[in-house]
Design goal:
Blueprint: E1 5-10, H1 13-25, E2 30-33, E3 52-56, H2 61-73, H3 90-98, H4 105-117, H5 124-139, H6 146-157, H7 161-172, E4 174-176, E5 182-184, H8 188-216
Antiparallel strand pairs: 1-3, 2-3, 4-5
Helix pairs in contact: 2-4, 3-4, 6-7, 6-8, 7-8
């Protein structure tokens, strides 16, 4: 059974409320949380310094993104002529489009419009290709993990709780792709190291406790 996972985080209430209303209008189930507790959907007694998260079912990620893009498209005529994207080069706009997950739907749509106005329109097919390439890029396992694994082994052999924490984190850590798919953060070989670190740390702790009990007798 699918679980709700974080779709996007917001720092301001107006942006959050806008998306909530869009989801409700299109019958997309969601969950709201802040960094302290489950979110009050009534927006009563809301505090403005928290990190607000909207969670969706993975199967609804693409649909929600498409709806937001459609809303943004209808707002392009209201753009301020001093908006910062007007100063972007063509290459910077293309990079923005290829990394849609890092930008707002409005910026994503405006970047396409600006390129079209400059005679460098990007087709829907090309945008889909860029999206697939981005998914492949984000799907790559975390690199430069040797120091992290080495640190895990050190703490594991020392018999510390930190070794268990590091081992478990390497084994279980996952990241969410823009399409809602959850994948392991670390490669299979790194997760095998995580398993060894976890087992060594647990064994070291058990041995340490056993010695203390024997010495106490």
């Amino acid at each position: 059974m699918s679980e709700f996972i974080t779709y996007e985080k917001f720092a301001t209430v107006p942006e959050l409320k806008e998306l909530v209303e869009l989801l409700e209008a299109n019958n997309i189930p969601y969950e709201l949380e802040d960094d302290v507790q489950v979110f009050d959907a009534s927006f009563a007694n809301i505090q403005h310094h928290r990190d607000y998260r909207i969670k969706l079912l993975p199967s609804d990620f693409d649909r929600a993104t498409e709806l937001r893009n459609n809303v943004a498209l209808s707002e392009l005529d209201k753009i301020d002529p001093d908006y910062y994207l007007f100063g972007f080069t063509d290459e910077e706009l293309i990079d923005l489009i290829s990394k849609q997950d890092e930008w707002s739907p409005f910026d994503f749509q405006l970047a396409q419009k600006l390129l079209k106005d400059r005679g460098r329109e990007i087709s829907s097919q090309k945008i889909n290709e860029l999206k697939e390439e981005r998914i492949e890029e984000l799907s790559e396992p975390e690199k430069h993990t040797a120091w992290w694994i080495g640190l895990g082994y050190v703490f594991a052999f020392l018999g510390g709780l930190i070794g268990i924490i590091i081992g478990y984190y390497i084994i279980s850590s996952k990241k969410v792709l823009p399409n809602g798919e959850r994948i392991y953060t670390y490669s299979e070989s790194d997760r095998k190291h995580g398993t060894r670190i976890l087992l060594i740390a647990i064994t070291a702790i058990i041995i340490g406790v056993a010695f203390r009990i024997i010495n106490a007798v």
